[in-house]
Amino acid sequence: MKAARVHSFGPPKVIALEDVPKPEPGDGEVLVQVKAAGVGPWDGLIRSGKSVLPQPLPLTLGSDLSGAVYSVGPGVERFKIGDEVFGVTNERFTGAYAEYAVAKATMIAHKPKTLNYTHAASVPVVAVTAWQMVFEYAGIAPGQFVLVHGGAGNVGAYLLQLAKRAGAMVVPLRPQKILHMSAALVLTA
User: 70, 82, 147, 180: least surrounded by Cβ within 10 Å?
Assistant: First the structure.
């Protein structure tokens, strides 16, 4: 199979398209036939050697993916061959820029029928980041007012939608009114 590989950290020219053996899923993993892979700033950090996570070389870039389950490893009951899925490959954010990628079964989900493969591959990291901010860190509750800096960006767009769905009042403010605020997310009761 083809994979976008890195053998040394550096600029984009260190990426090589190579033929590598198709991986096998291990315990709790699935092998996904990749239909689309997302691209995020973390991919550049990994490629350049600036990831905060240890990244042994060589590696295959990419984390966000969508595709169809090709095979399942031992202990996987939630997915079967042919299921359309999307999600993240693993905690190191590597492996998706290939024709086939191993993903932890706990880090993928069934792809909504309303999303095509390309759209589904653009969701995982940015949507989970927004979800964590809204529900795990901020604990947004109905009736709160939420101001999101960068609400037109990838994470911000999801954050606005999730905050509204949680019952918060998402209030658009003119830019001159928010210049003095430095928090990414501001809540008021």
Answer: 180
Tell me whether strands 145-148 and 169-170 are parallel, antiparallel or unpaired. parallel
Is the pLDDT assigned to residue 60 strictly greater than 80?
A: yes
Sign of CA dihedral 88, 136, 113, 70: positive
Q: Which of 30, 16, 38 is nearest to 70 (CA)?
A: 30
Cis ω on the peptide bond leading into residue 58 (within 30° of 0)? yes
Residue 114 pLDDT more than 60? Answer: yes
Q: Quick one: how far is CA 170 from the chain centroid? A: 24
Amino acid 75: pLDDT: 97
pLDDT tens for each residue of 97-106: 999 999 999 9
Per the CB < 8 A criterion, the answer to whether 40 and 65 are in contact is: no
pTM of the model: 0.82
Residue by residue, what is the 3-state secondary structure of the chain? CEEEEECCCCCHHHEEEEECCCCCCCCCEEEEEEEEECCCHHHHHHHHCCCCCCCCCCEECCCEEEEEEEEECCCCCCCCCCCEEEEECCCCCCCCCECEEEEEHHHEEECCCCCCHHHHHCCHHHHHHHHHHHHHHCCCCCCCEEEECCCCCHHHHHHHHHHHHCCCEECCCCHHHHCCCCCCEEEEC
